[in-house]
């Protein structure tokens, strides 16, 4: 039995499509909750293991604590990024979106926003646990706001790099591992800037402008590079 093709419909405006897709993805994920829960649990287990390796009360922990925080966040964020295009229902979802009157750019920015929300929530939860576990004290409101800003801006860079790579590796056998192999080396400049800026906040020092520039430049470059990549990736899927 042949299935009738959907009748042509005018393409929805960018903002209408963007809002609808973000809301739909957010509601769907909040009903399942498995992505955020998996990231948070993985982060907590990683922090506990590293706490056994480096005693939080030792002087050594003060030297490496920003690295410990970012290793934990980067590894945990790959779970949410990987699930942006991989899962039991993701193939059907992607096919439905491609058939809908929705621009590919709207879909890309909506997927980036939704993934950023999940990973950002995880990062803030982990930050609070990390501050308690590693006895990060003495931060006033402005310093803590700077720390949150560094974390959220860095997480954004991780997401805009990871979402197109997740789309590219979605149908590859072993794509979960390949995604991380591709992502982590490319994240080195972002990781370096984030570790430097975070450590300066922990030490109550002004954040180096070079570190902020590295984070901002990475975010902007990969945001627009991802927009160009996703067009080709989705076109390949349609073909």
Structural write-up:
This protein has 239 residues and is mostly helical. The protein contains 9 helices and no strands. The protein is globular.
Output the structural class.
mainly alpha
The total count of helices amounts to 9
If you average the pLDDT, what whole number results? 84
Our measurement of the CA-to-CA distance between the termini, rounded to an integer number of angstroms, reads 23 Å
Tell the overall outline: globular
Give short descriptive properties of this protein.
239 residues; mainly alpha; 9 helices; globular; disordered N terminus
Please sum up the structure shown:
With about 240 residues, the chain is mainly α. Helix content is about 80%, strand content about 0%.
List the helices and strands and how they pair.
Blueprint: H1 14-32, H2 34-53, H3 59-82, H4 90-99, H5 104-133, H6 141-168, H7 175-186, H8 188-202, H9 209-238
Helix pairs in contact: 1-5, 2-3, 2-5, 3-5, 3-6, 3-8, 5-6, 5-9, 6-7, 6-8, 6-9, 8-9
């Amino acid at each position: 039995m042949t299935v009738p093709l959907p009748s042509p419909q005018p393409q929805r405006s960018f903002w209408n499509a963007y809002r609808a897709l973000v809301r739909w993805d957010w509601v769907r994920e909040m009903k399942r909750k498995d992505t955020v829960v998996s990231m948070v649990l993985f982060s907590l287990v990683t922090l506990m293991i590293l706490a056994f390796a480096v005693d939080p009360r030792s002087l050594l922990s003060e030297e490496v604590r920003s690295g410990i925080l970012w290793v934990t966040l980067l590894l945990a964020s790959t779970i949410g990024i990987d699930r942006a295009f991989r899962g039991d229902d993701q193939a059907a979802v992607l096919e439905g979106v491609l058939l809908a009157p929705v621009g590919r750019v709207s879909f890309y920015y909506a997927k980036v926003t939704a993934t950023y929300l999940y990973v950002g929530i995880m990062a803030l939860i982990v930050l609070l646990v990390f501050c308690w576990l590693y006895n990060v004290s003495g931060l006033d409101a402005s310093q803590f706001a700077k720390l949150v800003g560094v974390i959220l801006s860095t997480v954004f860079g991780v997401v805009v790099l990871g979402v197109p790579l997740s789309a590219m590796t979605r149908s590859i056998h072993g794509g979960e591992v390949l995604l991380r192999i591709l992502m982590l080396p490319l994240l080195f400049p972002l990781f370096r800037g984030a570790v430097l800026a975070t450590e300066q906040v922990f030490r109550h020092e002004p954040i180096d402008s070079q570190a902020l520039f590295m984070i901002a430049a990475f975010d902007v470059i990969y945001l627009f590079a991802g927009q160009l990549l996703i067009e080709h990736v989705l076109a390949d899927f349609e073909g």
